[in-house]
Amino acid sequence: MLGLWIILILACLVGAAAWAGKHRTVKAIDVAGLNFLTPIVRLCYGEEPEKQLKDIGRFIVVPVIAILLFLGAWHVVSEKIQTKSGKLPNPRDTLHAAKAINDFHYRENDKQAAFNLNGEERAQELERVEQRLEELKPLEAEVNKNVAAAKEAAKERLATKVAPLQEELDTLTAKFKDAKKQRDDELASLASQAAVGDEDAKNAFVGKVRAYRQLASDERDRLRDLRTEINDMRAEKDPEEQRALAEQTAIAEERQYLGKMQDQLTDSNRYEKVDEENAKLQEARETLYAADSATILKAATKVAQTEDRIDRIEESGYAKPATLPYQVKRSVLCVFVGFLIGSAIAIPLGVLCGLSKTFMAAMTPFIAIFKPVSPIVWLPIALIVASAFIPDPDKHWFTQWLWELPLLGEYKINPAFIASAVTVALCSLWATMVNTAFGVAAVDKDHINVARVLRLGFWSRLFKIVLPSALPLAFAGLRISLGVGWMVLIAAELLSSSEGIGKYIWDQFNNGASDSFANMVFVVFVVGIIGLVLDRMMIVFQRLVSFDGAPTAI
Amino acid sequence: MNPHPDKPADPRFVEIFNLVKAYPNPYGEAVRVVDGYDLVMREGEVVSVIGHSGCGKSTVLTMVAGLNEITAGSIAVGGREIDGPGPDRAVVFQSPCLLPWMTAFQNVMLGVDRVYAHGTKQQRKEIVEYYLAAVGLADARDKYPREMSGGMQQRVGIARAIALKPRMLLLDEPFGRLDSLTRMDLQDVILNILDRERITTMIITHDVDEAIYMSDRVCMMTNGPNARVGQLLDLPFARPRNRAAVLEHPLYYELRGALVSFLEQQDHRVPARESAQMEAGWDDTLHMVEALNETELEEEPIDETATHTENQLVGAGV
C-alpha cells in the first residue's frame, strides 16, 4: 500500500518534470513548499547526481529513518505502560483503529444510501447483501471453530506452562503448613515449662517467638509471589487466541452491518415505509367515503393523520451517527469560520493601528490584556452569548436558514459551533493584528516619498502603496493565527460539545471501550496532519503574495 | 526648445533664496547643514549641483522637492513658493524606488493616473507606453522590478518622473548606483528627453564629467556644514549634446580643470565657521599650529582613498 503510494508520487514527479520542464517543476515544488522532492527531479535530469543523492539522503532517507526509529521506540514503550484503559496502544493497534474508523465511516454511508434506495437498485443491493450474508455463514462457523480450538490450545499451553509452578506452590503450601505446625508445637511445649522469675529464659522465649513470626511471614511472601506469578501467566493474553478473536469480531461486525443494511433496504427503507403508509391511507379513505354523519369526523382525522405521517417520512433522513471524517470536516469548517471572523476584525484594526500612532495607543491596552486570555476562558462566555441569541436552533430563523444552505447545511451549524468559532477568532486574531500593524507602519520610506511626490490621496496611498507592502507580514500573521486557531479549536470543541474532532476525543475518553485508547492516539495524528496541511497552505499563499520573491522559512 | 513658444523663457523660473537647513543638536547649537544657499535657474535650464559627498547637495534637492522641511529662506518655482511635494516637481531618486508589486507599466501609470485624471483610459495607456518607449523599455512593460536590472529599474524611475509632465525635474544622483556603461546609456536617455521636452532640471552629482556633459551650468557647493554655493560655472556646449563633440570642445579641459581644482580646494579647505572665526582675528597660537599643520598636509601627494575617508568623516559629522 505504502509502496504503491511512493511509486505513484515518483511517477507524478517524473511525469511533471518531463511535461513542464525542469525549472517549472522545481519552481512549482518550491511554491508548494515540498522542497524535499526537488533533488529527485534534478536527479531525473542528471544534474550533479552526487549532490542530489546526498540531498535525497538528507531530506528523505534521514526523516524516514527517524520515523522508523520513532515507531520502534513507541512500540517498545507502549509495552511497558499499563493503564486502567489498557496498554498504551502500539503502532499496530493505532493503525488497526484507523482502519476501524474508516470502515465505520463507509458502512454508515452505505446505510444512508440504502435508506434512500428504491426500485430496481434497491432489489439489486438487497440481493448483494443477502448473498454476502450467505457467504458469511460458513466463514462464521469456521471462525467460531477456530476460536474454540485456539481457546482450547491456549488453555492447554497455559496449563503446561503453569503446571510446574502450581506443583511447586502446592508442595510449598503443604511444607509450610507442616513447618508451622511443628513450630507451634515447639512453642507450646516451651510455654508449658515456663517458671516464674526466670528472666533469661523468658527473654529467650521472646526471641524464639519473634524468629518464628519472621519465618511465617517469609513463607507467606514466598507463596504470594508464586500465586502472583501464576495469575500473571493466566492473565496474559495468548496471541493466537487474540488473533482468532479479532477475526471473529471482524466477521461479527460485518454480519451486524449486513443485517442493518438488510433492514434499511426492507422494513426501514423510506419508500417501503411510504408504501405501507399509502396502503393505510387508501384504507382510511375508503372508510371515509363509506362513513355517515356519526363516524365521518373520526375517519377524516385518520386520513389527515396518515397524510401528515407520509409527509414526515418523505422528509426524514437516515439518522446517521457522526463519523470521524464528518467531524474532521466540521472542525476544519469551524476553524475557517473562526479564522475569517478573526481576520475580518484583525486586519482592519491592524491597518488602523499601523496608520495612526494615536489609534495604536488606544488599542495597546486591549491587545495587552486580551492577548494572553486562554480559550478556556473565552469559550463559556461565547457559549452563553451565542445561546442567548439562538436559544433554540431548531426554531431560530438564522440556524434554519443555515441548515437550508446547499453545502453548509450538512454541518448543522448550532450555537456550540458558533461559540467555538468565536473562541477561535478571539484567540487567533492578535497575531494577525500585530503583524499587520507592524507591516503597515514599516512601509519603506522611499515608497512613502513616491506617494508624497505624486500627492496620492488617502485611499490610493492605502491600496496602492501601504497595503501591498504590508501584505507579506500580514500573511505571516495570518499563518500564525491559523495555527493558533487550530490548536484552540480542539479544546473549544471538547468543552462546548460541538460535533468535531474535540468532541470525538471527549467521547472516546468517556466511553472507555477497548479500542477508545487507540482511537485517541490515532486522532493525535489526524490533528497533527491537518495542522500541517493548513500551515503549508498558508505558506503557499504567503509566497504568492510576497513580491520580493524571498524564500519563506520552512 | 521652449515649451511655450509664444512666451519668452522665464529667466527667474526657479528662485532659491538664502536657503537654510538646520538639524537640532541636543548638545549645542543646531547644526546648519546648508546655510544661505542661493540659486536662480532659467526656465528650461539644466543645472548640475556638484560637491563632495555629505556637503548637503541632496538636502538642497529634497527641499526643492518639498520632501524636506525648510528651516529658513525660500524656494519659488514659476513665481510661486513651493508648498510640500507635488507632481509638478518630479524626482528621480538614487535608488529607483519602484513599487515591487507593480509592473513597469503600473509603476508609470501610478503617476499618470494622478496627473492626467481627466484623460480617458486609452489616452493614459498611450502616455505610459510613449514614455516607456522613450526610455527604451517598450518590451519590458509587464516586467516586475525584481525581473529587471538596476539600469532598467532606473529607466522606469525616469519614465515615471517624466510622464508626470513636471515643470521641474529633480535628479538625485540618478546614476550613482550604476556601472559606468549603463550610466552613459542613461545619461543619453535623459539628454534625449530633455532635448525634446526642455524641462528645467536640477541634477545632483559628484561626477565632474557627468556634470559637464549633462548641464548648462554647474553649481559647485562648498563643503558642509554651512554649505552654500561656492562658484557657478557656465558651460558653452550646444544642445542637443553629443558626447564626442563635448569631449573635443577646446574649452572642455579648461572647464574640467576649473571644476576639479574647486573640488580639490574644497577638500583641504578649513570648514567655513573656523575660517570665519580666523578672519575675525581669533589667532590663538594653537590655531596657528593647526593651520601650519594643514599647510604641510597640502604639500603631501593626494591619495584618493585618503580624501575619500576624510569626506566620509565630514559626512558622518553632518
UniProtKB/TrEMBL annotation, chain A:
Gene3D superfamilies: MetI-like
UniProt cross-references to PROSITE patterns, sorted A to Z: ABC_TM1 (PS50928)
UniProt keyword annotations, A-Z: Cell membrane, Coiled coil, Membrane, Transmembrane, Transmembrane helix, Transport
Location(s) in or outside the cell: Cell membrane
Family membership: Belongs to the binding-protein-dependent transport system permease family.
Protein name per UniProt: ABC transporter permease subunit
Cellular compartments per GO CC: plasma membrane
Origin organism lineage: Bacteria, Pseudomonadati, Planctomycetota, Planctomycetia, Pirellulales
Mode of membrane association: Multi-pass membrane protein
Pfam families: BPD_transp_1 (PF00528)
Organism of derivation: Aeoliella straminimaris
Coiled coil: 209-243, 271-316
One Gene Ontology term from the biological process aspect of the record: transmembrane transport
Every ABC transmembrane type-1 domain range: 328-538
Transmembrane segments: 57-77, 335-355, 367-390, 416-441, 462-489, 516-534
UniProtKB/TrEMBL annotation, chain B:
Domain ABC transporter: 14-248
Origin superkingdom: Bacteria
UniProt keyword list: ATP-binding, Cell membrane, Membrane, Nucleotide-binding, Transport
GO cellular component: plasma membrane
GO molecular function, one term: ATP binding
Main localization, broad class: membrane
Membrane topology: Peripheral membrane protein
Record region (Disordered): 299-318
SUPFAM superfamilies, alphabetized: P-loop containing nucleoside triphosphate hydrolases
InterPro entries attached to this UniProt entry: AAA+_ATPase, ABC_transporter-like_ATP-bd, ABC_transporter-like_CS, ABC_transporter_ATP-bind, NO3_transporter_ATP-bd-like, P-loop_NTPase
Protein's cellular compartments: Cell membrane
NCBIfam families per the UniProt record, alphabetical: ntrCD (TIGR01184)
Name of the protein: ABC transporter ATP-binding protein
Organism: Aeoliella straminimaris
